Amino acid sequence: VSSPEVLAALESLIEQKELKIYRSYIEEILTKPINEYRQFFNAVFEPFSALVTTTDSRSVYSRMNDVVNEHIQNLRKAIDKRNDLLQIHHGRQHDRIRLTEADLT
C-alpha cells in the first residue's frame, strides 16, 4: 500500500466522521423549533388534557413537521450521496489472500 493511498483513505475516513457530526448537528437545529413548540403547547394546555398531535394536515404543527422532515430527508440524501463517493470500492479480487512467491514455496 502506497503513502498516497493511505492518505486518501485517512482523508475519506475523517470526512465521513465530519459528515456524521454535521448531520446530527443540523438535524438538531432543524428539530429544535418543533420540540420547543411541543414542549410549550404541552406545558400550557396540559391542565386541560390537550396534547400536540399531527392528525390535521392543515395545522401549524403538521406543516412545520412536514417541512422539517423534508429538509432532513434532503440533508440525509446529500450526505449519503457524499458518503457513497467517499467509500473505497474494491473489486471482487480484493479480498483474496496475496502471497509472495517466497511464501508459496
Short structural summary:
With 105 residues, this protein is mainly α. It has helices spanning 3-45, 60-86, 101-104.
Can you describe this structure?
With 105 residues, the protein is mostly helical. It has one domain. It is 70% helix and 0% strand. Helix 1 (3-45) packs antiparallel against helix 2. It is rod-shaped.
- Give the strand content: under 5%
Shape: rod-shaped
> Averaging pLDDT over every residue, what do you get?
84
Quickly give the structural class.
mainly alpha
Topology, number of strands:
0
Name the poorly predicted regions.
Answer: none
From N to C, what is the helix and strand string? HHH
Task: Report the end-to-end length measured between terminal Cα atoms.
Answer: 24 Å
The biggest beta sheet is recorded as: none
Residue share in helix: over 70%
The number of domains is: 1
The value of Rg in angstroms is 24 Å
Helix tally equals 3
Secondary structure elements and pairings:
Elements: H1 3-45, H2 60-86, H3 101-104
Question: Which labels suit this protein?
Answer:
mainly alpha, 105 residues, 3 helices, rod-shaped
